[in-house]
Amino acid sequence: MERQVALNLVKSQLTEHRYLHTLGVMETAISLAEKYGADPKKAEIAAIFHDYAKFRPKDEMQEIITTQGMPKDLLLFNSELWHAPVGAYLVEKEAGVTDSEVLDAIRYHTSGRTCMTLLEKVIYLADYIEPGRHFPGVDEVREIAKEHLDKALVKAVQNTILFLMKKNQTIYPDTFYTYNDLIQKLED
Ligand code: DGI
Ligand code: FE
Ligand code: FE
Questions:
Q1: What would the pLDDT profile of 51-75 be if each residue is shown by its tens digit?
Q2: Where are the alpha helices (DSSP H) in the chain?
Q3: In the predicted model, is pLDDT for residue 188 greater than 90?
Q4: Which CATH number do you get for residue 61?
Q5: For a FRET experiment, which of 74, 153, 168, 178 has its CA 20 to 30 Å from that of 114?
Q6: Residue 163 included in any domain
């Protein structure tokens, strides 16, 4: 799909702020893909669509999770997690994206998972470090991302878990699994 076609599709789904975030994720994902050897075109499309479902009503997302065979335990955790798997579903259905690697990068961009693919890592990290992000620790992750994809990723996941815990939020198990998997592999 042409970049402009994809951007037009996503623009109608997002606020101006979220659209600017998407542009930042797109540029960051392409450069991370080029640096670490992922497919830049897939990174571009996955980044453009990663937050496609961000503003869908909760009841619509709940319905999709229930009827489309997604993990039901998602419904027991923060609804912020839902737009990732629901996005993968809607991007296929409404935008006609069929590439399973791209869809998985969208599906796992919030929680991560064990054994993430290179493309999934690129999208997760680009979402965290795009230039529009301003939170404590993001500059450190940006610096690490210039040299080590996995080290940057583990720091991003760690920061996310710490941030959620400080706010007394629940942590979705896949988020912990992502962290454990990355840490174990870094130790090897
Ligand atoms: O959609 P974005 O804001 O660009 O970023 P995102 O999809 O990475 O994260 C969306 C939100 O989900 C963010 O506020 C953090 C939250 N989140 C990520 N992992 C977990 C989580 N919330 C809970 N409760 N548990 C998690 O494991
Ligand atoms: Fe998101
Ligand atoms: Fe995002």
A1: 999 999 999 999 999 999 999 999 9
A2: 3-11, 16-36, 40-49, 58-67, 83-95, 100-107, 118-129, 138-145, 149-166, 173-187
A3: no
A4: 1.10.3210.10
A5: 168
A6: no
